[in-house]
Each structure stands twice: as structure tokens, then as C-alpha cells.
Amino acid sequence: MKPFVKWAGGKRQILAKIKEYIEASKSFNNDDEGDKANDFTYIEPFLGGGAVFFDLHPQKAIINDLNSELMNAYSVIKSDSYKDLINLLAKYQQEYHSKLNNPEDEDGAENYYYKVRQYDRDDGWPSNKTDVERAARMIFLNRTCYNGLYRVNSKGQFNTPIGRYKNPLICDKDNLTEIHNYFSDKQNNICIMCGTYDKAIDKAERGDIIYADPPYDYEDDDGFTKYQMSGFTFEDFEKLKKSLDKAINRGATVIISNNATEKVINLFNQDPKYKVFYLFEKLSTLRSINSNGDGRQSGREVIILGMQNILPQANSMERIIKFAMLCDNELLKDKKQIMEKLNLTTERQVLYYLQALQYLRFINQLPEYTERITAIYDDENKIKEDIYNQLIENKLFSDVYNDAISKNKNVNIEYIVNEIEHMKINLAPATIRRRASTIKAWVEWMISYKGL
Question: d(Cα 127, Cα 136) in Å, to the nearest integer?
């Protein structure tokens, strides 16, 4: 199963890396393995061609895009009318190819393309066409236009010129049938939406995974690319982050992809309260929709992982201290080396220890070591003192610590669970208990550090 449309900004080059983050995220908020870790809803608010979605083919998903013609096609494929769509696409393919292959009618295919493109200029559009006819037109134009680029003018009319393909595949019957079967499978729950991104993100609950692939920032005069009549500005991106932050605070995990521009990096590197943990990874890619092959240049994309940072999850304070003393920004970007240095067995554990360093304000979201730790990283005693002082000023840790001291240094995990529940954090009961075990381990370290 693969995307049924070509789409500018497709994720094929970074798909494997995105999947790594999705796999790591499956159990991050639930702290469970196996079936429970897979019990989540996958949410994609900027679906486009759906390369990640189709590769992942989740059992539960909410897919959304503002492009009504695109989402109408998804809905038709899901419906019982998908066979009518296939038949109409087969007709498009037969007629278009016959004109392409007719040497006596050099302009026939081009005229045919622009005649179909003209539909949204006609009076009565789109109500003068059925959903199936609109879906077929959309797929036909996508398969025959320049580079699969969906672009509209100020009136919302499709205005991409014809592409120069000798044998375009317009009707992929087998793939469309496979997608229909996946959508209509009673064991799957795929919700198709068409609207603004926030409507889909607002549906995210604890344990869900959001993959956000908004229009890319290019830091030039045009800024974000304009796939829609209304465009997408950096102000829109700032609003998107606020929506994603809220979803994270409800217990969802967020994965974002975009160009690694200074504006994008700075936007997600701002959280003075350290309540949301963002982790960055930059990747080299080839990205351009330039018709001149020489214009296709290497770029830098970034994948950003966002999750809650309200409670720590790494139990070993000894490993945390060792990690802090390494104080090497390059190491922070290499999960394999971190695993080796800290003797960890999974990349998910690496995320826990990165989060612990951020919880203690030793690294920022990039991630890079902060001035706080660079001033003391070569002095283990100062690191321990700083950690203790931070924790004793934290109400949760202070309350648990004082309770333990009053009870003969016995750290009561039920007391911790009760304290966390009073914080009204959106976590499952089993997850709260696991977080409580980390709090217990840290408070026991505090008691040991003070020699009590």
C-alpha cells in the first residue's frame, strides 16, 4: 500500500527516521510494552500524500488536510464508490494515453489536460460534479501535472501546468483497492477529516501520537510554500506549536518535520518552564521542485520530538550524574554512543535520560548543554549539590523527602502516587505508578546524599 497521489514535500527521504521516532513514542506515555503500547490513535493533521500514514498503516487513525479535493478523494476511496472511481480513472488513462501516443495530434494531450483543469472555473463548481468525478479529476491532474505540485491561485483554482510524462500511471487499480480494503476493514478505525489542523489535534488524548508535517519554512521573501489559497505563515506555525503544546500536556506525543531554519529551531527551543520536552535531529536531504535538475540542492531538515516533561522517568541518579559530567554536545546527538556510555539497552531509555537532564535544566530542547551544567560539569560534588538543591526546591520532591524523613527514611510509594494524582496530570494509573518509582529512587538518592 502506497500513496495514491504524488505530493510535493513527500517524506520518502526521512521516512525511516520518522518511523524510529514513532516506534520510540508508542510506549513513552504509557510505559508499556506489547499490545498496550500499540493501543494509540495516530493523528496526522497535514496529511498530503500520506507517505508516513500509508507506511505505518495504523489500526486507529485520524487523518486530516485542509485541501477539500484531496480529502474528498480519500473519502471516495474509503466508500463503496471506489470501483466507480477506478472505472473513471481507467477512462482518463485510456483517453489521455491515446492522445499522448498519437503523433498526428501533438497538442491533444495538452488540450485534454487543460480542459479537465478548467472544471473548477466552470459555473456551479464543485456542486456540478459528483464526489467520484471530483476525486477522479483530482487524481488525474495530480498524475499528469508538473511534479505532482498542488497549487492554487487567489481564487482557489488549480493552476499547476501540465507535466511532461511519456507514460503516466493514472489508474493504479491494485493500490486503490488495497487502500479501500484497509480503510473499510472493520478491525480498523480510520477517521477522515477535512479542515484546519487544530480540529484534528484537539482530538488527541493520552498516549496518542501526532505527526505534524506543515508547509515548510524557507526563510526567503516568500516564507512558507502556499498550497492553499490562504497560505501558511510563520504566525500560523506559532499557533500550531501552541496547539501541539496543549496536546502534549494532555499526554500525547508529537513528531514534527520541517526545514531546519533558524526560525523553526528557535520556535521549538522556547520553554522556560521546561514543561514540554522537545528533542531535535537534523538531517541532510535533497529537496527542490525546480524544473531544472541543477536546481535540486541538498537541504537540512529537522525532526522534532515533543513530549511531556512534568515527571522524570530515568531511575538511576548515578547514570544521570555520569551523563551530566560528559558534557559533550556532539554526544547528545548520537543515541548509539549514549547507550554505550551509560550501558543502556534501548533507545527509549536514551530518551528517558535526555529528558532527565532537561528536567534538571542541564540541557535545552536542541539538545545542547546549558550554562548551568557547563559551569560545574567537571566537579561531581557540585553536580550532586546542584541536583539536590533543585529537587529540594521542587514541591513534589520536597514533600516526599520530608515525609520519608519523618518516617524513619522510608520512602512510601503510595504517598508518592497520591501526590502525583493530586497534580491532575493526564497519565494512566500504571504510568503514574512507574513515575512514582522514579520519584522514589531520586528521593532515596537525596537521603543517601545527605548521609541521613
Answer: 15
Q: If you count them, how many residues does the chain have?
A: 452
Q: Which residues pair with 428 in a beta bridge?
A: none
State the Cα torsion 129-135-141-142 to the nearest 10°.
Answer: 160
SS3 54: helix
Average of per-residue pLDDT values in the chain: 87
Tell which CATH architecture fits domain 12-66+195-308. Answer: 3-Layer(aba) Sandwich (3.40)
Q: What mean pLDDT do residues 108-123 have?
A: 92
Report which DSSP code applies to 120.
Answer: G
pLDDT in tens, 32-48: 444 455 689 999 999 99
Give me the residues paired with residue 212 across strands: 256
What integer pLDDT is reported at residue 41 of this predicted model? 95
The neighbour count for residue 292, using CB atoms within 10 Å, is: 7
Would you report the helix, strand and coil content of the chain in percent, each value rounded to 5?
A: 50, 10, 40
The letter for the amino acid at 365 is Q
Q: Which CATH number fits domain 75-173: 1.10.1020.10, 3.40.50.620, 3.40.47.10, 3.10.129.10?
A: 1.10.1020.10
C-beta separation of 140 from 96 below 8 A: yes
